[in-house]
Inverse folding.
């Protein structure tokens, strides 16, 4: 049976996973019509991921400190028991489980951060191409411009050449 702290760790891990997946879907919503908006949204998601990563790293440092044998022993200083070694070992296992959970969350955030940075780079490149007039939408604009130029100029007739007849 999981303790309350272990359940909390599992819930946090699950919430982080859901947020990461939701972030990837939010990055591709049709309401965002320009690459610049998408890049800004991705940057805000990156800042949120970095903030969460800093919080988890702080918590991991606290757990490392709590895992020291003298700190575990100090935690049970006022508790009377016939088997204090069992209490200390149980506490150490709980802290190790929490540490593994936080480490897995940090690993997931690192992967997410890498993907977000790559997506930001792609969105920035697309934004640049849109602003420079090159890329998939630029071809439509140049075709429309050349069509407009053709319709405003009068058409010139092309003279056909008469075939040259040769005698054999």
């Amino acid at each position: 049976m999981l303790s309350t702290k272990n359940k909390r760790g599992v819930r946090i891990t699950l919430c982080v996973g859901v947020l990461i997946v939701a972030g990837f879907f939010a990055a591709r919503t049709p309401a965002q019509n320009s690459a610049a908006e998408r890049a800004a949204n991705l940057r805000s998601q990156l800042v949120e991921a970095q903030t969460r990563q800093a919080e988890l790293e702080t918590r991991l440092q606290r757990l490392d400190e709590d895992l020291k044998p003298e700190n575990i022993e100090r935690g049970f200083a006022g508790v009377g028991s016939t088997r204090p070694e069992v209490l200390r070992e149980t506490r150490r296992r709980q802290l190790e489980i929490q540490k593994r959970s936080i480490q897995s969350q940090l690993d997931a955030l690192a992967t997410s951060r890498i993907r977000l940075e790559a997506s930001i780079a792609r969105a920035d490149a697309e934004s640049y191409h849109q602003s420079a007039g090159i890329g998939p939408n630029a071809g439509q604009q140049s075709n429309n411009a050349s069509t407009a130029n053709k319709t405003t100029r009068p058409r010139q007739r092309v003279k056909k050449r008469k075939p040259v007849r040769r005698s054999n």
